[in-house]
Design brief:
alpha/beta, Nucleoside Triphosphate Pyrophosphohydrolase, four-stranded mixed β-sheet, 4 helices, about 25% helix, about 40% strand
Length: about 150
């Protein structure tokens, strides 16, 4: 895939006390299309994956009190960003919310500017059976595997 732009991103798999995971919905044009993804985004110059993940989590949720736990997954994803196709190198970190189905802070304007159409907490069983596109693919199994190692 020569000629693709390169982007690095940190993402957060946030679990609530009942084991639900927070996902954000994007209703993008092709090639990405409508999909649900974990909070996160691109690294700023000189920023680590973990620092980007926690910054992006705060920007997208309004929460500045969530602590990252372990890095549990790395992947490369081809996607559209800022009008061009990029190869995005992602690192995903596990984190825990302190309340079940915690509400987001005052982030509506940020969501509108970033194209976040909706958010919700998903059970792993819902992830297993949904027809929706979830990024990363196999998220429920990834979470089960990470929790089995902890």
């Amino acid at each position: 895939m020569a000629g693709l732009g390169l982007r690095h991103a940190g993402r957060v798999i946030v679990l609530d006390p009942d084991g639900r995971v927070l996902l954000l919905r994007y209703d993008n044009d092709p090639p990405d299309g409508r999909h649900w993804a974990t909070p996160g985004g691109g690294l700023n110059p000189g920023e680590s994956y973990a620092a980007a993940a926690i910054r992006e989590l705060a920007e997208e949720t309004g929460w500045d009190d969530v602590v990252l736990l372990d890095e549990i997954h790395r992947q490369v994803q081809t996607m559209e960003h800022s009008g061009r196709i990029v190869r995005q190198h992602e690192r995903l970190f596990l984190a825990r919310a302190d309340r079940a189905c915690r509400e987001l802070g005052d982030v509506a304007a940020m969501h509108a500017s970033d194209g976040i159409a909706a958010w919700r907490w998903w059970t792993l069983a819902e992830l297993d059976t949904t027809a929706e596109v979830i990024w990363p693919a196999g998220l429920a199994g990834l979470i089960r595997g990470a929790l089995g190692r902890r």
